[in-house]
Amino acid sequence: MSVKDIARRQMQSRINKSAMASVLHLQVPKEGWIALVRNALGMSGAQLGKRLSLSRGRISQVEKSEVDGRVTLRSMQELAEGLGCRFVYAIIPESGDLGDVVEAQARKKATSLVKRAATHMALEKQSLRDEQNKAEIERLTKELIQNPPSDFWEA
Predict the structure, then answer these.
(1) What is the DSSP letter of 43?
(2) pTM attached to this predicted model
């Protein structure tokens, strides 16, 4: 087996692992998906261009745009199809749970409300203990999650 074949198999293995891996752990390859898949298939830029009626230069341009973060979704879709693949686009929460995003915002809002109230209460010498403030933040967080106000996502 040639070095080229070994390299191609390693790239294919990376792609297969990515396809099976949880999307949370998916990492964009430094060379970009288009170049990685194209090379793993043993396809030249000129060959991919011919399949899509595009020039080799255009393929190179799109590959560079992908690495630079300027590629369009349409280009990714078209090149994926030219590679015999499917382009998948998603926005996912960092933690994997959208509820965590809501809870973080509710906690931020609750903390702000409690701090504002604590400031006013301190001026009137009616401060609560830290444990009471923490308990109030937790109570308000749960309440905001259940009944978010219209300004929930505002700073």
Answers:
(1) -
(2) 0.69
